[in-house]
Amino acid sequence: MSAVPLDSTFAPIGAGRRRKDKLMRGLLGLGTLVALVPLVLVLYYLLKKGLGAVSWHFLSTDPTGNFLGDPGGIKSAIFGTIEMVALASLISIPIGVGVALYLVEYGKKNKFASAVRYFVDVMTGVPSIVFGLFIYITLILSGNFGSFAGWKGSVALALLMLPIVTRSAEVVLLLVPDHLREAALALGAPRWRVVSRVVLPTALPGLVTGSLLAIARAAGETALLLFTAAIVNGTSLNLGQRMNSLPLQIFTDVGQAQDRLVARAWGAALTLVVLILLLTLIARFVSRRSRLT
Amino acid sequence: MEAASISTRRDDRPTFGRSSVARWPDKLLRWGLTALAAAILILIAFFFVRLYIESRPVFSKFGVFGFTFDNNWDVSRSIFGALPLLVGTLVTASVALIIGVPVAIAAALFVTELCPRKARGPLTIMVDLLAAVPSVVYGLWGVFVLIPKLKPAEQWVTDKLHFIPFIGGAAVAGPNYFIGGLILAIMIVPIVSAISREVMATVPADHKEAALALGATRWEMIRMAVLPYSRAGITGASMLGLGRAIGETIAVTLVVGNAPQIGKHLFDQGYTLAAVIANEFGEAANNPLHRAALIAAGLVLFVLTLVVNAAARYFVVRGTRGQRAAPGDAATAAAAAGVGG
Predict the structure, then answer these.
(1) What is the pLDDT of residue B14?
(2) Which of B18, B120, B133, B146 to mutate to test the interface with A (most CBs of A within 10 A)?
């Protein structure tokens, strides 16, 4: 019975196959490297060209708008971005979490809920510039609400954030174990208390993570602010007026093709990327502290 | 007899029941949340209708097909045929897919199947970080780094490949379709890679182990167990990337050249649907027809992304539903692995 020699049962892998395996593995590794090259290059150039531009003066003065001399800094842009994104978060996070709560608590299987889910997905795919056009048409072109204003930028950003918040919140809420809900219900808690005292607190870290990622996405958005908040030099704390923002400041400065403005664009880009990376890092940190897996 | 009093008779309030007053917060929550969800549906419908109404002047003047497929975008004479923009969008998006998808899939395969366990987390984070860089920063980088640095390389390629139409024998323009596509490729890599990774994670370990046990090398295991199983999901991921590439605005506006005609070759200046809206919006404020044309371009873009995303969703859902569908396939794949090379 032991007539079959061992080495024919476990025939060694032929040299050709082995070579092909090595080659393909190498190619896949190379592909991964190629994917990371742009990240390294972008960060390298941001640091190289942006660091020189950033200073306290740069962060604390408004753009002057002068054709010659000191172009000024990016204070109004930083303030505008923070204000508009904050208002957008105030609008989109409650609504987004609310819709996700509906989908998870009341609409796991019904048709209406799956339609909502589908259209939230559709919204994820809508280009941001189309959101911008839509807000421009309804809030500016219609003439009822005046001209460009910060709050209109916020509404457009909120539309962009809404599907991101909803989808991430839905995933997290689904992770809340059903036995927690059942235990609370069995103890006689009404549904709204189950939601507010059990489901939401349990899911909180995940909800924060999703919201922060949505905020990070909104902070870098340019196209829709072009049609809604426009651009202005001075700092404004009034969301009813035109408002500057970091991405728009970069966009207009690039278009000017003057060295000192381009330097400001690099500085603003570095500031923006640092801001977004901070948000992303905090989001990761919070999600790691979550008890849900 | 005690039990009978707990039963839920209609006339008599059950012991565990609540008064109707105590129940209204529940109802409020339920209907409030339902109304929120319904508002999303209404919003999207409203969205579409408003865009259509505002773009009607240009559709009634040039016709829907005339607007979309006429090769004539001349602002000074108020003639709007969006074909150059449509072609630009499709060309840049195709370049993005051709470059971006293989790289994204390679990165996904490497992270899920090949790399050491310790490197998995950091590599995933780094690929995902590509998505954290804003569009306008890619644009800035494209204008001041990519365009000047790549120009000699592009010229060299087009000189060497002079026999291929649309690619070879051209005078390279600074900003061009190829640069636009390249920037888009960088931007779609993280999304395509992330979804591909998720789909690949659903490939049952049995299939992979079976392939390896039958003597397949790692690559043969990937080719015969992982790739066939996740093909639908990868297709869906690529379509989502396509949707993203079609709608991307600012980065492309900065590097595509913004010339309203169909470029003669890959390294010629062009325009895209999204770029035209961002770029000509300012000057269109005083010309209602021009403004309507830009909104119509937005509508075409909207419809295009809707179609692409619907298709993507179909593939992704099919890809993950296949989870229990095909136990037989992997066995055949593994069997083939022992023979093939």
Answers:
(1) 53
(2) B133
Low-confidence ranges of chain B (pLDDT < 50): 1-9, 322-341
Residues in A touching B224 (Cβ below 8 Å): none
Residue A90 covered by a domain: yes
Answer whether residue B93 is part of any domain: yes
Residues of chain A with pLDDT under 70: 1-11, 67, 291-293
B219 within some domain: yes
CB contact under 8 A, B44 and A27: no
User: What pLDDT is attached to residue B104?
Assistant: 95
d(CA B55, CA B293): 6
Q: How far is Cα B102 from Cα B125, in angstroms, rounded to an integer? A: 19
CB nearest B26 (choices: A31, A126, A191): A191
Q: How far apart are CA B177 and CA B184, in angstroms?
A: 11
- Residue B244 structure tokens: 């993203």
Query: What pLDDT score was predicted for residue A126?
Result: 86
Per-residue confidence (pLDDT) for residue A83, from 0 to 100: 92
Instruction: State whether A36 and B126 contact (CB < 8 Å).
Output: yes
- The predicted pLDDT at position B261 comes to 86
> Does residue A63 share a domain with residue A37?
no
- In this complex, which of B133, B305, B341 lies closest to A16 when CB atoms are compared? B341
Structure tokens at B312: 């993507």
- pLDDT, one tens digit per residue, over A168-208 is 899 899 989 999 999 999 998 888 899 999 999 999 988 99
Domain with B76 in it: what CATH number? Answer: 1.10.3720.10
Does B54 reside within a domain?
Answer: no
Contact B28/A141, CB-based, under 8 Å? no
- Residue A10 φ/ψ region, left for φ over 0, alpha for ψ in the -120 to 50 degree band, beta for the rest: beta
| Min Cα–Cα distance to chain A from B327, Å | 25
Q: Does residue B163 fall inside a structural domain?
A: yes
Residues A145 and A164 in one domain: yes
Identify whether the C-beta of residue B154 lies closer than 8 Å to the C-beta of residue B172. Answer: yes
Chain B within 8 Å of A84 (Cβ-Cβ)? no
In a domain, A36, yes or no: yes
Cβ A42–B141 below 8 Å, yes or no? yes
Give the separation between CA B174 and CA B167, rounded to whole angstroms.
15
Q: Which domain holds residue A35?
A: 6-50
A66 lies in the same domain as A110: yes
d(CA A106, CA B18): 20
B60-99 residue pLDDT tens: 989 888 888 888 888 888 889 899 999 999 999 999 999 9
Q: Give B318 to chain A, closest Cα distance, Å.
A: 15
Q: What is the pLDDT of residue A293?
A: 56
Residue ranges making up the domain that contains B256? 62-339
Assess whether A199 and A137 both reside in one domain: yes
